[in-house]
Specification:
Structural class: mainly alpha
Number of strands: 0
Distance between the termini: 29 Å
Order of helices and strands: HHHHHHHHHHHHHHHHHHH
Largest sheet: none
CATH class of the largest domain: Mainly Alpha
Helix content: 55-70%
Strand content: under 5%
Shape: globular
Length: 335
C-alpha cells in the first residue's frame, strides 16, 4: 500500500506537467498525495473492517466525503457525493490505482480476484475497469508469492490479454495522457517488468508522460510487491508520511499488522483459472460469454503439457501468444 501512495506522491507534480526524462527530480516542492492514495486507503480499510464481505462502496464514498478535493475525476466525485447512487460503468484506471492492498491482504490468489472485482464494481463496472483492477492486484500477488518477472508477465498476458512485451523506451515517444485501463495499466506493468528497483519502476512509469500520478501509483504498488516495501527509498517514504492525514497513518499501521497474518506462500494458481471460468459464465455479455469460455479452454489446452508443476497451468510460461490475443479480443467484445 505504501508503494502505491509513494508512487502517487512522486507522480503528482507531473500529471499536468509531463516529463519524458526518467531522471526527473523526485519529490519536489508541490508533490502531494492525491485521490490515488485516498482511495487506496479506502479499499484497504474496507477489507480490514470486514475481510469476508468488504463494503467497498461505503468506504469509497466516505473517503471522498472526508477529502472531497483530493483530485478525483469529476464523474466519480459526483457519483460519490450523491445520496442515491447507481453502479457506474467506468472503464477508467481509477479501478486499478486503488487495489494494491488487495494483493497483500487476500488469503489466496483466487481471493485476490474476488476482492479486486468487488472493489471495482461500485464505480468501474465496465469490463475494462474490472480487468484493470484484476490484473493489477493479481500481478502484485504473483510477485508476493515469488513469481519471476516472466511468470508474472505470462500470467497477466494469458488471463487479461495485455501486451507486456514492450519496453518503456519504446512506449514513451508516442505516449500521452491516457485514463483508460487498457491504455495505462499494461504500460505501468511494462515499467515494473523492466525495472531493477522500486524507484526505477516509478521513474519509468512517471516518465512515460501520461497520467503520471495514477501510473506512479499502479507501478509503485506492484513494484513494492516485487521488490519489497523496504525498497522504497526511506527518505522518500518519510517525506510522504509527513504529508499524510493521521487517519492514513493509522490505516498504514493496521495494514502492516493485517498483512503480517497472511501467508504469502505460493497458492494454487489453478484456482485462479477456475475463478475466471466461473466469472465468464456468470457475467456473459450476449454471445461473447460462450466465446470467452472457449478462449479460456483454448488457453488451458495450450498449457496442458506443463501441468505437472503445481502452478504451471496458471503460469502459461510457454503459452502461444495467439491464445492471449484471442482472449483479449473476447474481453474487448464483452466490454
Amino acid at each position: 500500500m505504501l508503494g502505491a501512495i509513494c508512487g502517487d506522491f512522486v507522480g503528482s507534480v507531473y500529471e499536468f506537467n509531463p516529463t519524458k526524462d526518467p531522471a526527473f527530480p523526485m519529490a519536489i516542492p508541490g508533490s502531494i498525495w492525491t485521490d490515488d492514495s485516498a482511495l487506496t486507503v479506502a479499499v484497504a480499510e474496507a477489507i480490514m473492517e470486514r475481510p469476508d464481505a468488504p463494503d467497498f462502496e461505503r468506504h469509497l464514498v466516505a473517503m471522498v466525503r472526508a477529502h472531497p478535493w483530493a483530485g478525483y475525476g469529476p464523474a466519480f466525485r459526483a457519483w460519490a457525493l450523491r445520496d442515491e447512487r447507481e453502479q457506474q460503468d467506468s472503464w477508467g484506471n481509477g479501478s486499478a490505482m486503488r487495489v494494491s492492498a488487495i494483493a497483500w491482504l487476500a488469503p489466496g490468489m483466487a481471493d485476490v480476484a474476488t476482492l479486486a472485482r468487488a472493489s471495482a464494481l461500485p464505480s468501474h463496472s465496465h469490463q475494462h475497469g474490472i480487468r484493470g483492477a484484476l490484473a493489477t492486484a493479481v500481478m502484485g500477488r504473483a510477485f508476493l508469492e515469488g513469481a519471476s518477472p516472466q511468470e508474472a508477465r505470462s500470467l497477466i498476458e494469458c488471463l487479461y490479454g495485455y501486451d507486456l512485451s514492450r519496453v518503456p523506451d519504446d512506449i514513451r515517444p508516442g505516449y500521452s495522457f491516457k485514463v483508460s485501463c487498457r491504455r495505462s495499466v499494461p504500460e505501468a506493468m511494462c515499467c515494473v517488468l523492466a525495472a531493477s528497483s522500486w524507484e526505477e519502476a516509478v521513474r519509468l512509469a512517471v516518465s512515460l508522460g501520461g497520467d503520471a500520478d495514477t501510473q506512479g501509483a499502479i507501478a509503485g504498488g506492484i513494484a513494492a510487491a516485487r521488490f519489497g516495501e523496504d525498497s522504497i527509498p526511506p527518505a522518500l517514504a518519510d517525506k510522504v508520511k509527513e504529508t499524510l492525514p493521521d487517519t492514513f497513518i493509522d490505516a498504514l499501521a493496521r495494514f502492516d499488522v493485517a498483512r503480517s497474518q497472511v501467508s504469502l506462500s505460493r497458492s494454487d494458481w489453478g484456482r485462479l483459472e477456475r475463478w475466471h471460468e466461473a466469472d465468464f459464465a456468470e457475467h456473459p455479455a450476449d454471445e461473447s460469454g460462450a466465446k470467452a469460455l472457449a478462449a479460456l479452454q483454448a488457453m488451458q489446452d495450450a498449457l496442458a503439457p506443463s501441468r505437472s508443476a503445481p502452478n504451471a497451468g496458471a503460469l502459461g510460461v510457454s503459452a502461444p501468444r495467439k491464445v492471449s490475443a484471442w482472449l483479449s479480443k473476447v474481453l474487448d467484445r464483452r466490454g
